[in-house]
Amino acid sequence: MNNLKPTAICHGIESLACKLEYSVDPQDPSERSLGRRAFGRDHEGAVWSFQRLRQPSNYVRNTHRQAATRSIRQDGGLGFATGVRFDLLALEPVGRALADAFLKHRVGKGGTSLHNWLLRWLRGERDLPDWSDTLHKALSPEHPTADERNLVRSRVFETSTSSSEKRQRLARAIGRQAEFPDIERGVIPRLRDAGHRKQADEVIAARAFGAMLDRARDATSELTRAVEPGRGGVPLATLVRDVALQKALATLRAATANFSSKASAAGINEPTSRTFAAALLAATNEEQAIRLLVESVGKVLNLAEAAVIRGALFRVVDNSESLDGVEEGAVSIEPDRTGRTFRVANLHSLLRDTGHRGAA
Questions:
Q1: Rounded to an integer, what distance in angstroms lies between the CA atom of residue 197 and that of residue 57?
Q2: pLDDT tens-digit map of 308-318
């Protein structure tokens, strides 16, 4: 136990929570529960121990914990913890209060605390199917307690910071409807009508950034497909004549130009995205654009003189369209490819979960 890292513990508990949710109704699990494919392979229902559920092969590799780390930190997040890396985070008092609210759930026939139940599970002293409806609800992302909702709501909307004020404005623009609102026709006009034009411009820029990421993924997908058959690499002179790659690069340039324009209008100068956009728009031919893409995915592809070769972690990258049916729940952790804008969608989920009442 003492040698376990927080990432491993969190991975196992998240996997257990999602598998319990899946087991309630395998045909219609919660949209926020990951791992459906892995859980469906466990025909005998034998994979319930911490040692097995902590393994990515029995759950997923891209977890909710990875996506949530930034939001729980003090720097730019909700202030539940301080630190940079997840394994080194230190809980703030409000973060410890949230953890206590979660761990004090009573579960099982004896009414033991979730804290004690999980400790025994982590040590291998408890296994499933020693679970009940109370354990499922204690771990489920669909059943937060009133204390948990109140603590999160207070950090999202009631702290006196510029970030909190911005979230409050966006919450009013999103409204309180159950379905996600139309950003172009609903959220952005509401922000502008309320006098928050700069924030509206920032939302537009965020949408343009998501589109640029998707088009970059599409171009990288075509590039990896072209390189896959050539074990010794494919000459740049051959790649620049690839029609599918040419089309993907043209679409990427258009999306990049749009992002650059929208980011400038919003006054956004985030260096990584702006530098990539400027370099791509400055490329005068396909070869320069291909070189830039290869440099941005250095472990997947590499340059060798006048050819593109496989990198140490080479794989054929899926394009954005092929990810429409990605692992259930992953829409909450993957880059936006739905037109919803990733962080706005997450705030909409928080509004529902915390019972916050926005605009009509």
A1: 46
A2: 999 998 988 88
CA-CA distance, 16 to 58, in Å (whole number)? Answer: 10
Distance CA 159, CA 162 (A): 9
Return the sign of the alpha-carbon dihedral for residues 117, 8, 87, 347.
negative
Lowest mean pLDDT among 44-48, 59-63, 166-170, 354-358: 354-358
Find out whether 155 and 94 touch, Cβ atoms under 8 Å. yes
Cβ within 8 Å of residue 105, ≥6 positions away = 113, 114, 134, 137, 138, 145
Helices (H), 228-359: 236-239, 243-266, 271-282, 286-296, 342-354
Q: For residues 307 and 192, give the distance between their C-alpha atoms in angstroms, rounded to a whole number.
A: 49
* AA identity, residue 300: V
Spatial contact of 79 and 159, defined as CB atoms under 8 Å apart: yes
Which amino acid, residue 176? Answer: R
Alpha helix positions (H), the chain: 6-24, 36-41, 50-53, 64-72, 93-103, 114-122, 133-139, 146-157, 162-174, 188-193, 197-227, 236-239, 243-266, 271-282, 286-296, 342-354
Closest residue by Cα to residue 60 from 22, 5, 90, 103: 22
Query: What 3-state class would DSSP assign to 310?
Result: strand
Contact 45, 129 (CB under 8 A): yes
Segment 102-147, tens digit of pLDDT: 999 888 777 889 999 999 999 988 766 556 788 888 998 778 888 8
Tell me the residue type at 184: E
Residue 113: phi and psi, rounded to 5, are: -75, 150
